[in-house]
């Protein structure tokens, strides 16, 4: 019979290897999909962790000069919104949700996308555009914001990410 006063064996603490590098893939261009990637990359740099952002498919909207300040909250098919899909489809609902989210972010002093990308680059983070998506959407280099270091292939991304924790948002 065991008692509360019995000595328990000392558990060995698992040694954790600190994260040294992260590579974050941004594949979606809605506000609630882009910001987590930006916050994680910025947080990594503030902790001294190398950070790479790889924008592909609709995530490219965040690095396109004409679109980065016009990202919206997805209200249709977003279970986190807590509203039925039919309500999310009502005209103006996405604009309303976007306005509310931007207001909350402003109150928390969270910078707009362009400024966030600039902060990440200034802190030593690297920002890349996906060559396949770039070509598929018929983009030009001048369509991209200045923080994009290079347009690279998936193979290049994996090479640059060797040894990094890969995060898909």
Question: What would you note in describing this structure?
Answer:
- This protein has 169 residues and is an alpha/beta fold.
- It has a domain at 21-71 and 113-168: DsrEFH-like (Hypothetical Protein Ychn, Chain: A, 3-Layer(aba) Sandwich), CATH 3.40.1260.10.
- It contains 6 helices and 5 strands, in the order βαβαααβαβαβ.
- The chain has helices at 31-46, 85-88, 93-107, 113-122, 131-136, 154-160; strands at residues 21-26, 50-55, 126-130, 150-152, 165-168.
- A 5-stranded parallel beta sheet has the order 4-3-2-1-5.
- α1 (31-46) runs parallel beside α4 (113-122).
Q: Topology of this structure?
A:
Layout: E1 21-26, H1 31-46, E2 50-55, H2 85-88, H3 93-107, H4 113-122, E3 126-130, H5 131-136, E4 150-152, H6 154-160, E5 165-168
Parallel strand pairs: 1-2, 1-5, 2-3, 3-4
Helix pairs in contact: 1-4
CATH fold label of the domain at 21-71 and 113-168: Hypothetical Protein Ychn, Chain: A
Radius of gyration: 20 Å
Number of strands: 5
Give the biggest beta sheet.
5 strands, parallel
Rounded average pLDDT: 89
Q: Can you list the strand order of the major beta sheet?
A: 4-3-2-1-5
In CATH terms, the superfamily of the domain at 21-71 and 113-168 is DsrEFH-like
Shape: globular
């Amino acid at each position: 019979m065991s008692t509360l006063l019995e000595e328990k064996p000392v558990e060995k603490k698992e040694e954790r290897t600190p994260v040294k590098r992260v590579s974050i893939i941004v594949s979606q261009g809605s506000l609630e999909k882009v910001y987590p990637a930006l916050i994680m990359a910025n947080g990594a740099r503030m902790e001294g962790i190398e950070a790479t952002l790889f924008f592909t498919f609709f995530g490219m909207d965040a690095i396109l000069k004409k679109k980065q300040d016009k990202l919206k909250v997805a209200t249709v098919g977003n279970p986190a919104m807590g509203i039925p899909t039919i309500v999310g489809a009502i005209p103006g609902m996405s604009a309303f949700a976007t306005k509310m989210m931007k207001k909350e972010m402003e109150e928390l002093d969270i910078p707009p996308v362009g400024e966030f990308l600039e902060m990440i680059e200034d802190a030593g983070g690297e920002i890349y555009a996906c060559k396949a998506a770039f070509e598929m959407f018929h983009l030009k280099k001048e369509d991209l914001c200045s923080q994009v270091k290079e347009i690279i292939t998936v193979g290049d991304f994996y090479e640059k990410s060797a040894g990094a924790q890969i995060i898909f948002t």
